[in-house]
Amino acid sequence: MDDDMRKQPKIACEKIGKTFIQKGSQQVHVLEDISLEVYDKEFLVILGPGQSGKSTLLRIIAGLETPSTGRVLLDGREITGPGPDRGLVFQSYMLFAWRTVMGNVEMGPKLQGMGRRQRREIAQHYIDLVGLTGFEKHYPHQLSGGMKQRVGIARAYANNPQVMLLDEPFGQLDAQTRYFMEQETVRIWEAEKRTVIFVTNNIEEAVFLGDRIVALKDKLPGRMSQVYPVRLPRPREHTDMEFLELRQCITEECVLTL
Amino acid sequence: MNTDAIANEVILTVREKKAFSLLAVLRNEYFLYVVSSIAFVLIWHWVAAEQILGKSLATPYQVVQEFTRLMTVRLAGLTLLGHIWASTQRILIGFVLASAVAVPLGLFMALNRTVNAIVKPVFDLFKPMPPIAWISIAILWFGIGEASKVFIIVIGTFVPCLLNSYNGIRLIEPELYDVVRSLGGNRKDEILQVSFPAAFPAIFAGLQISLSIAWTCVLAAELVSARSGLGWIIVQGMRLTKPELVIGGMLIIALVAWLTTLGVSLLERLLCPWKRYIEGL
Q1: N or C: which terminal CB in chain B sees fewer CB atoms within 10 Å?
Q2: How confident is the model over A175-186, as pLDDT tens digits?
Q3: How many Å lie between the alpha carbon of A170 and the closest alpha carbon of chain B?
């Protein structure tokens, strides 16, 4: 990564901590002392096992949760709530079941008050980009899991966000579809680069996708354990020697830090 | 095989075609529908004609004959169609009145805690009361005219209408609101783009339940006090010991109730084209 890209991070998390208060006023520390920077057009993967607070971290960056301590900056300005500058993709797709593929994808521009013709044009562009051309009039229940998530990605992209936040987007897919969607993610990202924060619990997926991998520790509260730069050229192969070595290295260290 | 495919993801759109055979015809569901219906009518006729259950069962033919007669001969000033309309009219008025108030109120309660806190205790008190229990008070208040019957229907259909629209909103996945907010929407967008459309199927389920309850209510009210309607026809049949009048009245009620339900179903299909429907019901 170039030095001038490092000057101003796109997203900066400063000592983020999050404590939930459960019923009976029991406190649960979910995140502690998370400081990380994401640079413009960078593909950052947050890797952590279940119950490591990684989804909460993403929701804080999205502005859907407020951090108990610390703050998140976008282009140097503090994030105070959700906004169209950050596009969100959910593990369980969260499509509007009552809207067609087109209706889902054009929702962002529609909420921005854009006219029908213009937003249709934008939506069509992203439907084409994610490979759903011809499915514009289908309803979500007529699509397979991978296709639903393509709609989710297109919907987030169509709002033209500066940062894409993906929360285990392929967690519900079968292994075959998952591999394929990972390749598609790289293809889409290379076609229209955005800053990406991608949350996953899958080491292989992290190595395949990330420019950098931030590994979180197991067990709550979630803390950062290690940052791995991934210097492998794209397109990456799951069976390359270097790929396997990095995967091996992360696996061992992750197990050691448990 | 016709398929829509994106790379490795395939959606099958056409079923396998089975070979034509006698067994296939015998197992064909439409064939079985016809056989089963004819068998039912034949057994009914046999049981009635042989008086196996005594004299108080009319044959299908007697029922049809009696009701053909009633198409032209007036009973208490009304032909059969007049009586059907009398009951249906009560249902429609009561049903529309109740749902016009209960559905918005249920939505409002689900969306606003203050409204919920105010309405809920009163609603919880009335909720478990069987609507039929209101008949006596309705007659005391409104006499034996139309108003008391409509009142019973309103009481009976109000609860399921309200409960279903309330639950329809309460059961929405909260992350759907997160989607709207992260796309730049506000509270108004959350309600218009998620709450209302997502609650639609539940609202219609409530309307369907209400409609069948409305038929129960109107019959109960007509059995107690009326000078018209299908419930009154049944009571006449009982008083005059004419089983064909009672059975025919029951059949007509089933038919008209089914038609009104079908009307609501069609409206739902028109308004909720995204919904998956159970086939064959």
Answers
A1: C
A2: 888 988 999 999
A3: 14
